[in-house]
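Researcher: Let's do a round of design. I'm pasting the structure tokens now; please hold your answer until I've finished.
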């Protein structure tokens, strides 16, 4: 291990104490009375992830299937997939470089895409695992390094209903993979799994263990994901088996086996899928006032790792930790798929496009204008599509960007720099051949310069900095210079880190991020205080997808991870983050409803897309010591 990496780990430990220690005014959770290694659930998850990455991630970004530590054995596809699911379950980004390391787990899969395809082609269980890992990483499994892993998965379905598998565990993984991309699970696949349930309500592991909590837990998650309800008789029978097989310290692999973190974690994930109170020390799943969550956390060492014991004493175990992290995070399978939600929102935008002009309204019920069209273009491009494609071209022949060009002169005939900035952001998102210096017969940066006031305002700040910030974002995203007086004005407009509300604080951080400024710690503190109990942000105590999006984009822009444990709230045992809330507000048609009246709201929908496709970093640097010194 390099000296750089060792030194970073030491600094990270100090930072983690500052983040999650008992004296933290911002992030410390309620302490437990049980003998656990960490004072709250969020710090337990964060410590486990940090241990896993620091101790087991190889220099190529991958993880070995069997290893005693980092770079002790070659990386493999299955080991890396396990790690990706754990990292994503904790709210971290498998595509982001961990501080002190250059390669990433998702980068390993991309660099070894031929091996990934070979792995997925063996059977539907393995293909399902690939799809689960990619969707959890906010990556499209239909087009990853030129391969369509959803097609590989669905093509593995046999007439019997099996996904080229012989055991319930792999069948469950295949079903979960199908569900993760919002595809209906074939009835034959569900029936194949249901038919293999035993008389006790359990499923077997196909290796001679008839009543296996692990396979039973996976089957429950698969059935729920496939559309079976908690009241389904087979699900209830399985639930009774889990109740009957529970021991004081969790669950073992079968009767006669002592509890272990892997089986306990899988059962917790199944209970989470059923909305059972697995986290409640006084609930029906508690044994001697200790919930299954507490039983799981008691396997955790103060190193952050979860420990196994095969008869020779407990030891820090990679596989126990990988399995425990999703459960300790309160995550069932499939994990939240942010990109899938964003792609569904594109279908919504498709239906909102004005068939006459090719543009979009800014708000529900309004006419198409340049503001709504620019925002739609940004959402389309952020989700990976080209707004110039036929999908976004109306019968009159205008594509989305041409519509923006036609709508821009009328839009800029009134207003000031904020409107110019909004148009510029859409032009930049559209990409070549469009250019802000020659768009709608205007040089937009020159138009912006004409709005600059001696005060530094690009737009009036009489009622807040939002329009001024939109102007600055337009210039910054077009790689145009922002006047220093405008920056000074923005910085001077806050009071103790607060620009007025969550919306304004979020867009201010976006500007600061584009300027490569460090996030003011006071603003982070303000945003923590403004964060709602469900993990989102809003107005007047009510969650709002647009306000949440602005904050998330702002936090990501200044190097924070808005989906990680430090920005999560524990809700019914789950580390809930802003994406969970916003995805829960999405309608069945892919749209976000208008929170201020009837109809679907294009403003909230485009904001949600921009938020959901965000790929934040680890969010460590801005909350650890101000300077990290390294030695070569």
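Researcher: That's everything. Go ahead.
Model: Designed sequence:
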């Amino acid at each position: 291990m390099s000296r750089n990496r060792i030194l970073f780990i030491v600094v990270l430990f100090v930072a983690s104490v500052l983040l999650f220690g008992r004296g933290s005014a911002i992030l410390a959770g309620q302490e437990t009375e049980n003998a656990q290694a960490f004072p709250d659930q969020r710090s337990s998850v964060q410590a486990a992830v940090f241990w896993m990455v620091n101790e087991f991630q190889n220099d190529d970004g991958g993880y070995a299937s069997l290893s005693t530590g980092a770079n002790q054995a070659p990386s493999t596809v299955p080991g890396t997939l396990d790690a990706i699911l754990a990292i994503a379950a904790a709210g971290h980004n498998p595509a982001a470089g961990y501080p002190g390391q250059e390669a990433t787990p998702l980068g390993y899969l991309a660099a070894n895409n031929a091996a990934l395809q070979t792995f997925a082609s063996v059977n539907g269980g393995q293909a399902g695992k690939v799809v689960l890992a990619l969707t959890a990483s906010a990556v499209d499994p239909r087009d990853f390094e030129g391969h369509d892993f959803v097609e590989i998965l669905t093509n593995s379905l046999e007439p019997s209903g099996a996904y080229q598998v012989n055991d319930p565990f792999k069948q469950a993984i295949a079903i979960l993979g199908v569900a993760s991309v919002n595809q209906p699970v074939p009835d034959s696949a569900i029936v194949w799994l249901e038919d293999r349930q035993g008389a006790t309500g359990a499923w077997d592991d196909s290796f001679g263990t008839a009543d296996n909590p692990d396979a039973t837990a996976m089957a429950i998650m698969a059935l729920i994901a496939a559309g079976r309800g908690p009241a389904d008789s087979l699900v209830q029978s399985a639930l009774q088996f889990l109740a009957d097989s529970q021991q004081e310290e969790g669950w073992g692999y079968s009767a006669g086996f002592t509890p272990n973190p892997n089986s306990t974690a899988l059962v917790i994930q199944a209970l989470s899928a059923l909305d059972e109170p697995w986290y409640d020390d006084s609930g029906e799943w508690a044994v001697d006032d200790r919930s299954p969550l507490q039983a799981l956390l008691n396997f955790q060492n103060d190193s952050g790792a979860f420990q196994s014991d095969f008869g020779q004493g407990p030891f820090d175990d990679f596989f126990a930790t990988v399995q425990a992290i999703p459960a300790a995070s309160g995550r069932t399978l499939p994990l939240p798929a942010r990109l899938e939600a964003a792609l569904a929102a594109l279908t919504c935008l498709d239906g909102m496009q004005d068939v006459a002009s090719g543009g979009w309204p800014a708000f529900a019920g309004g006419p198409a204008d340049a503001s709504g069209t620019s925002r739609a273009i940004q959402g389309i491009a952020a989700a990976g599509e080209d707004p110039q494609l036929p999908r976004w071209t109306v019968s009159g022949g205008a594509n989305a960007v041409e519509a923006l060009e036609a709508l821009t002169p009328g839009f800029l005939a009134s207003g000031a720099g904020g409107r110019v900035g909004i148009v510029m952001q859409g032009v930049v998102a559209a990409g070549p051949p469009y250019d802000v210096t020659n768009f709608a017969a205007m040089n937009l940066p020159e138009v912006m310069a004409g709005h600059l006031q001696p005060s530094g305002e690009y737009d009036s700040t009489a009622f807040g900095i939002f329009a001024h910030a939109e102007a600055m974002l337009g210039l910054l995203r077009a790689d145009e210079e922002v006047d220093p007086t405008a920056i000074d004005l923005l910085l001077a407009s806050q009071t103790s880190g607060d620009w007025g509300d969550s919306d304004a604080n979020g867009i201010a951080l976006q500007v600061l991020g584009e300027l490569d400024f460090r996030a003011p710690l006071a603003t982070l503190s303000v945003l923590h205080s403004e964060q709602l109990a469900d993990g989102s942000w809003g107005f007047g105590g009510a969650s709002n997808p647009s306000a949440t999006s602005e904050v998330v984009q702002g936090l990501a822009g200044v190097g924070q991870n808005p989906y990680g444990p430090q920005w999560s709230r524990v809700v019914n045992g789950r580390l809930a983050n802003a994406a969970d809330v916003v995805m829960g507000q999405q309608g069945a048609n892919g749209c976000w409803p208008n929170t201020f009246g009837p109809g679907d709201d294009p403003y909230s929908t485009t904001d949600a897309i921009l938020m959901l496709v965000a790929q934040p970093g680890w969010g460590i640097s801005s909350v650890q010591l101000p300077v990290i010194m390294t030695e070569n």
